[in-house]
Design brief:
Radius of gyration: 19 Å
Strand content: under 5%
Amino acid sequence: MASTTATPPVRTRLTTADLVQRGALAVGVSLLAVIVVRGIVGTLLTVPAGFNPLVWGEMLTVTASAALVATVVYGLFDRFTKKVARNFLAVAALVFIFFLFPLFTVVPTLPGSTTTLTAVAFVLHVAVGITASLLRGRALLGL
């Protein structure tokens, strides 16, 4: 009778091309989510022109920047840590929580702010936060 021993899987680091591909996908999906949610909101609600959290240019710039920074952070974790997904998700969760503070303290004080518009800004935060998962795992992306 032959015996077998289990060996732990060897983690391979992402190639630069894989990281760029995942980052581009994260940016694209984040922007798409924001465009869809903001488009729906724009047809259902009146958004004051000066209500910065829902102004198109600022919203898209912040979204793309957040996804790009997340990609860089993921790349650093991939290069320098063994538990990439766990570390990345922990940092992403902390950043998400940190960015909720201004959402619930500053946004309600802006001219034209309503509870509904603050809720929409929250939904946008969640939608962008979820796309962080696009940076994880080959199985998720089919890569």
